[in-house]
Amino acid sequence: MTDWQEIEGGITAPKGFLATGMAAGLKPSGAPDLALIVSDTEAIAAGVFTTSQVRAACVDYCRQRLQDKASSRAILCNAGQANAATGELGLQDAIESAKLLAEALNIDSDAILLASTGVIGQRIRMDALRKAIPQLVNTLSETGGQAAAKAITTTDLVTKSIALETVIEDRPVRVGGIAKGSGMIHPNMATMLAFVTCDAAVSTALWQEMLTRAANQSFNQITVDGDTSTNDSLIALANGQSRTSAITDMNSKEAQKLQGMLTAVCQHLAKAIARDGEGATCLVEVQVSGASDDEGARRIAKTIAGSSLVKSAIFGRDPNWGRIAAAAGRAGVSFHQEDLQIKLGDFLMMENGQPLAFDRQAASNYLKQAAAGTYLKEDTVLISVCLGNGSGTGIAWGCDLSYDYVKINAEYTT
Amino acid sequence: MTDWQEIEGGITAPKGFLATGMAAGLKPSGAPDLALIVSDTEAIAAGVFTTSQVRAACVDYCRQRLQDKASSRAILCNAGQANAATGELGLQDAIESAKLLAEALNIDSDAILLASTGVIGQRIRMDALRKAIPQLVNTLSETGGQAAAKAITTTDLVTKSIALETVIEDRPVRVGGIAKGSGMIHPNMATMLAFVTCDAAVSTALWQEMLTRAANQSFNQITVDGDTSTNDSLIALANGQSRTSAITDMNSKEAQKLQGMLTAVCQHLAKAIARDGEGATCLVEVQVSGASDDEGARRIAKTIAGSSLVKSAIFGRDPNWGRIAAAAGRAGVSFHQEDLQIKLGDFLMMENGQPLAFDRQAASNYLKQAAAGTYLKEDTVLISVCLGNGSGTGIAWGCDLSYDYVKINAEYTT
């Protein structure tokens, strides 16, 4: 039982947010490539960024900005050029982009946050950006969430958008989000981006804490090919326009409700990214329980979801529990192998660290059906691993490894 | 300039070692599947084993044995059944195998070390093993190195064997080695095995230290698909039959010479395993320099060599420096991106953290030639990364990611 329901509107569902997207001529293809999200009023801003040592200019820019002032009015995102590994000139471009948008919106430039996705080593096409910004601002609307969701995509096959609503103090409180993925495993492309809007009133410190918690149970638990990108960014704005009283205590009922909704939005987007992974035919969900702590459980879940052997076995519809056991064993988390239990869907394959007899054909059929989305009406393959009696649990999401993954990532000889 | 030269004979090149291999009926295919290495006299024994929490019975057996007594007379290795995740019964099988061999060789059973490779969850076919052991012992010979090298393979396309000789105190001192790989990425198969023989006289503590050092610069620096196995074992015997005085000081000239030769043997075998990785068309060598320490350099080198994006770009002959930079950045080792320099073969692609103009077609041709082995007569793609002014250096080896990798690992639906 959840306290909230899904609603229409994506990032423009929460009160006081406008968005838009357009084709600004940044992508050679001419597809939409420039997105803008604006809050009517100053919003509390929180961010989680790539841990990579090789970072895009926008990542360094946002980190600095959020250090100086954890509030914002707008997020500008361009697709086509990642503006990563572009040095001082790339940073100057980022700064100019913020200035240009600030003038067009008639706000301070330090109220702007930036994100980029595209080819590493390429600077933003500033000439095109300069031309586009006035028009971009003119097309802002309360129904622009989808246009923004489309404009941030690169090789994504589908746009990724969601909005949830709950009730606090008899008022509707909403969280919306959009994301782009799969591009991170496109040649030279390198980005997982997600933007979240919220009309709850929440304190700065709490909002950052909530976002970090949500990221650790969603975006930080997905893996397509293990390649953390130079541009990964998750930015969340909370503008308080639901007019509810400020949430300041993490233990309050309201905070728990908001945390749950924020985490649900991030998990929905994270799963959508994994399901849309390059060449993927299905989403793989790995549930780990019985670990000594949650961190260890999450680590093992992610290691299994990221194993090339497990991923290619699932693509082959092979109920290969040995690879799941081997991946769990190498995650760097200690457990007693004699306690290990492994389930694939409803099929128990290993118990007390020893293999069980099971119907291989039926298990293979489960994989076929799950991948085809004809099992439980969802294209999700479920792997459940229990390590023992510990209270630690964790979930990770990934996808299978197909010929198309190699095709997409190999056959772009420059 | 090295102090040693390559010679014939593999693991039976060092004095006082016998070996053999035979088809004992453990593999359904009827291929050779049982190998034995024996030293005429008690040999100092050292081992490095998988760090996985899910281990084969032979790994637990050898760890215990080497703790009790760091010497050995013989190594028995079976292929076909990994005897991993087989619990108490699997351990009993291992103990019985050692007893059977000890009786046939008329030595103490605690002088036997064991290794297994094959299907996880399957116990050794003891009936076949019991029948085979007397014949196995009868076929031991001073020229049996190749037969042993063949009998430990699983999906390997080639056997992996080497022997080196140097001179200490005017006497020849030899190190020989055999290995099997690629099987670790075969469905259900899960093993990297290597056995080293040496006729130098060396102290127990020093021999283990030397082997650990050698492993850290060889087997621990290769990656085919990142899946550490349940059975990985490296075992080295030194029997002192070169009749040179005992080497006890790591700083002595003799110790340095022996360490160099041992490391060279391990690197030769490690590179052979990477080159023979499932579906691989070439060996990829990643050299990292300028790091603050060697460990960080090795970690970055291994992260680049293991990146699915880098691997598939190389398969596509795409000089994709952006992926190399991204992989270096996510290795968890801190450096200043503005110092980053990246070379592919002789092509300088990034300097001071910024992209350089280079001849893409020529660079792609380099990849084609290197992969075809027509470049410098070696099928090795060289990636060089410099992080700055630090003194830390490291090398890692991997292979490209091809359709065949997915094919081999997916199309074995059980």
UniProtKB/TrEMBL annotation, chains A, B:
CDD domains: OAT. It is found in: Cytoplasm. Transmembrane segments: none annotated. Catalyzes two activities which are involved in the cyclic version of arginine biosynthesis: the synthesis of N-acetylglutamate from glutamate and acetyl-CoA as the acetyl donor, and of ornithine by transacetylation between N(2)-acetylornithine and glutamate. GO terms for biological process: L-arginine biosynthetic process; ornithine biosynthetic process. NCBIfam families: ArgJ (TIGR00120), PRK05388.1 (NF003802). Its EC number is 2.3.1.35, 2.3.1.1. One of its GO terms (molecular function) is L-glutamate N-acetyltransferase activity. This is Arginine biosynthesis bifunctional protein ArgJ. The record marks T117, G118 as: Involved in the stabilization of negative charge on the oxyanion by the formation of the oxyanion hole. It comes from Aphanothece sacrum FPU1. The record marks A190, T191 as: Cleavage. Keywords: Acyltransferase, Amino-acid biosynthesis, Arginine biosynthesis, Autocatalytic cleavage, Cytoplasm, Multifunctional enzyme, Transferase. Belongs to the ArgJ family. The active site is at T191. One of its GO terms (cellular component) is cytoplasm. Pathway: Amino-acid biosynthesis; L-arginine biosynthesis; N(2)-acetyl-L-ornithine from L-glutamate: step 1/4; Amino-acid biosynthesis; L-arginine biosynthesis; L-ornithine and N-acetyl-L-glutamate from L-glutamate and N(2)-acetyl-L-ornithine (cyclic): step 1/1. Pfam families: ArgJ. The gene is argJ. Heterotetramer of two alpha and two beta chains. Substrate binds at T154, K180, T191, E278, N409, T414. It catalyses: L-glutamate + acetyl-CoA = N-acetyl-L-glutamate + CoA + H(+); N(2)-acetyl-L-ornithine + L-glutamate = N-acetyl-L-glutamate + L-ornithine.
